[in-house]
């Protein structure tokens, strides 16, 4: 890659997407999510008259935009983002790209089509703009052929993964002519504004993730045929047991599209002669070829490796699975593998991989599959590393990042290899005559100290920003794992600094600069006594931590921030009829949220993933919130027959009252405006509404307009720390306990109850739903008092506690809690 010779765009302010198919339209939607205006163009429908209306000539893009608004999972953070997309067509509107800083081509995987469009687009590009192509494997240099030299300098590949909003990987593929500054500009934008993990690949067939992923999937299919396994057996073996998505191999294939998988495989085989690859020519299994002939292409046509077969008694989808030997469909059966059943008890993914891989292949059916699947993956991945440009990756880190963020593996191939034990695995491979990659031999030849745990691809190094070193096969030495500035995790910081204090559910970690983090780390971060106790004791004014630190962050490294209160603890207390203990637990939870709100130091909560029930109540009471963009936030207690009992109703009421009071100064005496502000809050809580993004959580009232949103998950901790530090530097003062809250009162309570009665009469809700909703109304109205009666925060907490405890005594609530604990789903009884 040459040094910068052109004036690369310093900032990306407007983007054009050329091609409104599934991928192009979703890329446009995600750029709109970032708040940027987007031009989305596609071809004029064949046969359309030149004097036809704009809508007719841009019909394909209009249809794509309509599909985006209805798509599941949602393409937009909030529907309003669609207004940022300007639509058009290539014939009439290509000039619209002239004021765009980045133009990305996303048309069919056909070299001639790409050449023709790019050369037309080139005529409208302004100086300094960046031009990229989205392709899953076509050579970038070949796509660039025909462009002017000055355009080629700003041209490279940007391979998004579908769906672009949710899949974090972005592979950037330069040619030897690509300007480094242009590439750095776009990488920075996609990292910071689109939340992407950037992986740089050489211009080799299928790049990194699809190269490794296609090999792994093809290998699983080959082993299935050799060992006589079924499709559902392979999906069980290649799912969560390995830390891979629970879809497994074939459900993933249906989701991606079997024709797409075939295209990637065929594209790779077409380029096989130009590369060195032990599995260069991928031959599709005959049964997959027959499926493609029959148009059994997966979920998009309702039939692939699986097909829908109606619904069961509880309304869940039933599926039949393909018998690959006969091409008939049969009911899905749950495979039984004793090795996997045993491994489920092993919490660590690495330890689970080691246990499964090293089981006895002579007696264990799962082990017979895992041994070749994983050891051949290790060898294949090791052979894909070279800095010469002949292989896709310069180092092992890029491969592991690509597989973790492109295929959602918990561990990359080299991390799995380490977990399995490199030396022990290689010794068994040698014993059976399996080939050992040259790069593996380099690792084994490195002089590891006796005090070290044997040859490993990675080793801890608390002195580096990433906390790790990796074995660089080019130099034959260890180097720090590179990370961008601002990317870190609590795990890395704990390796360097340890912990201030901890218990089984939570820890306090010194982040530096006078800021401490309270990390949640129970299973699913369910909020039990341990977490409640640690947060309360840490944030109370007399604590040592309040004396030692100037600000706090509450967050974690896990997949989800918190699924809410520990329902198992609650149910056990209810079943034992230990009502005093249950009430004390609710009081303790309320004391925790009050400690967060009234802590003399600013507390910033950084939620991510699922943030439900009590997790929302923690967030509501903080001085500020710094959420991740992908935030599924909701007060969902109604789903288990309860209402928020930790101050959630109180805080949502305060926001509604404040909003209502701002409509008319004398709203306290009227109650009407307060009701209008409260109505949405009531519906949100009573319906257990969960946001599909942080932007929607803000619209629901869980976040304030002043709360910032982090798009890149890897930057969340740094952003939250900076926010907490800024509050402290601004002279933060804790709020004063409110005693002058105007209660909406009996008139609002009566109106809300009428709405509940109407829903019940229409049979939209059950009797128990109505009972729960009426308690929500009671808590939000401030009880049976005159409208405008001034009440305190403590009074509102007591109302919540009264409602919560009353519902705990209901049999139907207990049934709902038990069902949710068993199935993870709500029960409508």
Automatic annotation (TrEMBL):
Annotated ranges, domain Enoyl-CoA hydratase/isomerase: 518-649
Assigned keywords, A-Z: NAD, Oxidoreductase
InterPro entries tied to this protein: 3-OHacyl-CoA_DH_NAD-bd (IPR006176), 3HC_DH_C (IPR006108), 6-PGluconate_DH-like_C_sf (IPR008927), ClpP/crotonase-like_dom_sf (IPR029045), ECH_dom (IPR045004), NAD(P)-bd_dom_sf (IPR036291)
Pfam families assigned: 3HCDH, 3HCDH_N, ECH_2
GO terms (BP aspect): fatty acid beta-oxidation
Ranges for domain 3-hydroxyacyl-CoA dehydrogenase C-terminal: 207-307
GO molecular function terms listed in the Swiss-Prot or TrEMBL record: (3S)-3-hydroxyacyl-CoA dehydrogenase (NAD+) activity; NAD+ binding
The keyword Iron-sulfur is assigned to this record: no
Domain 3-hydroxyacyl-CoA dehydrogenase NAD binding, residue spans: 14-203
Catalytic activity: a (3S)-3-hydroxyacyl-CoA + NAD(+) = a 3-oxoacyl-CoA + NADH + H(+)
Protein name, per record: 3-hydroxyacyl-CoA dehydrogenase
